[in-house]
Design the sequence.
């Protein structure tokens, strides 16, 4: 099985830049998208040329904002949208799809914003999302949590850690603590597990040619239930795939 997670930064725009051809080439069993910036109907229409997949999308109340989707060859046994909490579910940030052997949760974590104005809300979100996935894990099936977590975990995960620490959204101690708490709740960062010392990024600013210079951040993750990492045969970051300011990440098992 192969899963690919991709913050497409607008699925309709990404399709216009060749997304469907990239998806066919990646040939994954499950795709998880974040920041679709589209309604569920628009997501399905955008992926109309991707034959043989079931599309389950979740949109934000605000048009053209946020949004997530799980797209799979095998129809899920069940699909849930959101984490079941008013206020947290207004922005279409989580889709949970249960399959025969695993449960897949795709998430687009809120960004703390300019001048960290949204950091307090971000901390509330981190706690609520952690409670949600811990509750899911207790149901017994292995969990795969993938998506844009909007945080670089350690210095190795961004090109310029010192100037960004506690100054930039995505690398404050509060956000790092949030990811630590999630991992400590029983999950493993699959890429870092298999590639403990590899420097690779999944997002680059549009400014100053950052991608060409590889001045990036690793903020897109595939986390798995502790124990399931032993079944993961590959964890990858596909820097060569274009069409967004992010690139796809994924695992095989």
Sequence:
């Amino acid at each position: 099985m192969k899963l690919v997670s991709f913050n497409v930064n607008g699925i309709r725009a990404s399709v216009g830049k060749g997304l469907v051809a990239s998806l066919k080439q990646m040939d994954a069993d499950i795709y998880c998208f974040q920041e679709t910036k589209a309604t569920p109907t628009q997501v399905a229409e955008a992926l109309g040329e991707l034959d043989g997949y079931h599309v389950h999308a979740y949109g934000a109340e605000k048009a053209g904002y946020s949004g997530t989707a799980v797209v799979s060859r095998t129809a899920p046994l069940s699909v849930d949208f959101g984490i079941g909490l008013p206020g947290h579910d207004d922005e279409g940030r989580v889709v949970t799809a249960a399959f025969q052997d695993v449960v897949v949760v795709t998430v687009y974590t809120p960004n703390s914003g300019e001048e960290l104005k949204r950091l307090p809300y971000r901390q509330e979100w981190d706690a609520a999302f952690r409670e949600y996935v811990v509750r899911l894990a207790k149901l017994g099936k292995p969990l795969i949590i993938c998506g844009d977590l909007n945080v670089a975990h350690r210095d190795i995960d961004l090109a310029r850690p010192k100037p960004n620490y506690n100054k930039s959204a995505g690398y404050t101690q509060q956000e790092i603590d949030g990811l630590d708490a999630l991992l400590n709740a029983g999950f493993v960062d699959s890429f870092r597990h298999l590639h403990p010392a590899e420097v690779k990024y999944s997002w680059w600013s549009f400014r100053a040619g950052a991608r060409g210079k590889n001045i990036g951040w690793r903020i897109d993750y595939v986390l798995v239930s502790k124990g399931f990492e032993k079944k993961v045969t590959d964890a990858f970051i596909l820097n060569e795939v274009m069409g967004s300011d992010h690139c796809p990440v994924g695992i095989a098992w």
In short: The mean pLDDT is 97. The radius of gyration is 17 Å. The chain has one domain: 2-252.
